[in-house]
Design goal:
Blueprint: H1 2-6, E1 11-14, E2 17-20, H2 30-34, E3 50-55, H3 61-64, H4 132-140, E4 149-151, H5 180-188, H6 195-220, H7 225-250, H8 270-286, E5 292-297, H9 300-305, H10 312-316, H11 322-333
Parallel strand pairs: 3-5, 4-5
Antiparallel strand pairs: 1-2
Helix pairs in contact: 5-8, 6-7
Amino acid sequence: MMKTNLERRHFLRGAGALIALPTLESIGFRRFASAASTAPAAPATPAKRCVFLSIGFGVTKETWFPDIHQTGADYELSEGLAPLARHKSDITVVQGCANQYTNEAHWGSTFWLTGANRYSVPGQNMANSISADQVVAGHLGQDTRFSSIQLNAASLEGHGPGLSLAWDGRGKPVAGQDDPVQVFHKLFSPDDMPLKQRQAAIAENRSVLDAVLTQARRVQRGLSRTDTDKLDEYFQGIRDIETRLKKDEAWIDVPKAGAPLDEPDPGLKGKAEIEIMQDLIVAALQTDSTRVLSYRMPGQSLLQSLDLKPSAHNVSHYSPGDRMEASKVRDKAH
């Protein structure tokens, strides 16, 4: 009887919308299964903020890290960190950390903020867990318009699987934005849709979720343990959407901050792209639009903009000579 009820329920319907169910072995997929509510008041003390920046294929080991034997505030900055000299008193360098559970050399960003065991799920080639930025966003993002913002590079050499540095509580990738113009508008451009229409859209989305959750709970009866776990994960995804809807509702009549910088020129690449993205990061923090950001920075386009001939991949396989010099220039440019 259960099979008959579920055969055509691979999608859940609600208020005219369709939301796909996860792949459940109980409904014919067994063979695949194995293969903050208000605008923030001015804080009495400076708000805590967190930014994560990632370089595809890593850095030049010999010139990036300070001498590990020099501890305390009087250590000598390395060649790679020399551009940060005027901020030295504000910097703590942590080194010697490694993730022993992944050995994929070209996936430097995939597990960087999660520290996850790639093989933690039996029979699955890759598993991940929540990233540090999303954990932080759960604490620092309650009082800002955007709980966190993820920035990306259009070319992702050396970063590995994922849509940004961020992974949610289910170990699923969180999408990032790679266009500085779109990031600018997300942060500072007013919404074109009238307030009442935005309110109606949020109400409609909430009614869709309510209807979908009602049907999903009916589907849950009689499922196998494996499918129950999958559906629990699915429910978490729905709850995440509900959280975003609540955030949208709380900020719906709060104007966005005024932009402290001009709209970026379209089509920026390489060094110019990185610089404007970093300017947008600073602007987002200055206006308290968010307190948590991450950025997977480009590699190949950066080298091209610096007139360096080796590819981003080849630079990572440096030896004394042109590749190593290109790697060192790349480090400082980031």
